[in-house]
Amino acid sequence: MARKDTAADAANPGRLKQIALTYKMTRKADKKIGLVLAAVGIVTFGVFLAIGFLIGHPVYLGILGAFLALMAAAIVFGRRAERAAFGQMEGQPGAAAAVLDNVGRGWTTTPAVAMNRSQDVVHRAVGKAGIVLVAEGNPNRVKSLLAAEKKKMNRIVADVPVHDLIVGTGEGQVELKKLRTTMLKLPRVLTGPQVTATNDRLRALGDLMSNMPLPKGPMPKGMKLPKGGPKAR
């Protein structure tokens, strides 16, 4: 019993510290966050307290109002914190990968499955909607990356649908803050076992590629690979 109490006591300061850090980060991008939260809490509490006096139960409605005021403030804080976070992440390399890591349960994310010299990158997520390729970078350059990766996916897992998305604010692109919602709206066509099988096939391919004995440097012209393995001494 003592261990559970100790763990709970240790978790509370950590949680409060995390909330404080989130508030500080949000306040940098949203200067009015404190006033907004205070206004939401006061208005919510005031409305319920007024109703309580009207019906003759100010204490009961006051307690309920205080509880709902905290909930309303928490919801507003969460939304504004998320908006501020997306605003800070917009245009930063790897921002899409960070969003994909938080899409939700049932999704397996592999960042940077394809990249070019200009740091344009394609990430991959696998879920019940199939395979989703998410590109971030120059829209004109990432199209070729997406096409090559999509062709590879269709060859490896031909029976699994492959979707492709480009993160950005231009026409036909998906804003970073809408990426998670867009993915969750995709139709679910795979079962749990099919998702697992797809991940296993892609993971096996990745292990095969990573274990290939590739040379560290460029191969000299005219050099031929040996037909047999190294001879035992």
Automatic annotation (TrEMBL):
It holds the Pfam family DUF4191. InterPro entries: DUF4191. Keywords: Membrane, Transmembrane, Transmembrane helix. It comes from the Bacteria. Residues 210-233 are annotated as: Disordered. Residues 219-233 have a biased composition (Low complexity). The chain crosses the membrane at residues 33-53, 59-78. This is DUF4191 domain-containing protein.
